[in-house]
Task: structure prediction
Amino acid sequence: MKFERAAVIGAGAMGSGIAQVLSQAGLEVVLKDVKDEFVERGLKNIKRMYDSRVKKEVLTQAEADYLFGQIRGATSYDEIGEPDIVIEAALEEIDVKLDIFKTLDLVCPARTILATNTSALSISEIAAVTKRPEKVIGMHFFNPAQTMKLVEVIPGVKTSDETVNHAMNLSRDLMRKIPIKVKECPGFLVNRLLFPYMNEALFALQEGADPQQIDQMLVDFGLPMGPFTLFDMTGIDICTHVVNFLYGEYGARFQPSPLLDKMVKANCLGQKTGKGFYLHEQGEVPKKGEAKKVNPQLQEFIKEANAEAKTPRSSRKVDAYRIMLPMFNEALYALQEEVVVPADVDVGMEWGCGIKRGLLTLAEEKGLDWCLTEMLTYHRELGERFRPSWYLKKLVRAGINDFSQLEPEPVGVR
Ligand SMILES: NC(=O)c1ccc[n+]([C@@H]2O[C@H](COP(=O)([O-])OP(=O)(O)OC[C@H]3O[C@@H](n4cnc5c(N)ncnc54)[C@H](O)[C@@H]3O)[C@@H](O)[C@H]2O)c1
Result:
């Protein structure tokens, strides 16, 4: 399939980034939102992205002008033409997305692939309101879409292999991204693995650990930033929503720390409100290595959380492995459900979260039997968050310590 024309629905943070990447990939793009002012804001954003590419000498001014000129704003479906693919990046509300897909199904040619950039909604449910579920797919970009390389390509139950291949090829060959195929499940791959880790950092805090020390510990371990810096950047309200959603879907091992609700109620949402785990000058992005001030309210939240519910404590000093093990264990749950092939766990966590050494590779270095013993010890002390997956037990019993033995050829397309 040749991709020449695309439409993007929603001209917000993600939609404008995706439209920029599509235009730089050589496609004509229609960027649609509900009001002129939103379209204008999206186009302005894209112009800024192109200006910065000129400044960095990635593109000449003439090239940037040409590529920017390939994007047209629209507020009506009459203006979206005959796209080869539509990528929807509107509000994360199921009714909004169902309406959009019903309309797209009516106005687009039968050959058009309809993709959604949803973070968590069901691809299969969205596909079911169209007469072409085989051509509906999830393409989950990461923020900012114009720079983050990873795309999770998520087929719904009726999506055809052909559509999957087209979405993979478009992402890899034209958009120059790194796509991985992920079976539809709550949180897909990256968020599903990230949140048990984020949550465990909160429980460590409740046991008296210091947020700066935990952040530093994880940076020393090889992550681009620690969990509390990430909480503050992402927004504690958004993280609370995600972890509650995953808890609802997967149960006990995602039980959220009560600290989150306390922080949301106190409007300590991270950078956007000037205080979260740290204090921030309003809107300022922390610079690497910059000394941070811990929010003095944090101790009060911890005290209240601990007084309300007695959470078990570990007899051991918190280390990086305690925080990382729930992420690793969730990867094993995902592998046991065949959500991805093993090689794509490392690809996803590298390009989605910056874990350069590879999550499964790190576990192999320590030994899977070591990981299992640790999980069982923490499970006895701290409960269900550390229940090891049966897949981990199976691998250890089989004496397997090398994931490449399970999947000799990486299937993830680079
Ligand atoms: N922001 C992130 O980090 C991130 C990452 C991955 C995926 N996503 C997902 O991408 C989508 C967009 O997120 P965002 O952060 O860009 O949101 P945003 O609020 O910045 O932008 C959403 C845009 O959609 C527009 N919109 C709303 N209803 C519409 C409709 N019916 N038709 C056309 N446009 C409509 C809004 O006017 C707004 O401009 C969501 O589904 C979100 O879950 C977000």
Notes: DSSP finds 17 helices and ten strands in the chain. The chain has three domains: 5-181, 190-308, 320-405. Strands lie at 5-9, 28-32, 71-74, 85-88, 113-116, 136-141, 150-155, 178-181, 278-279, 293-294.
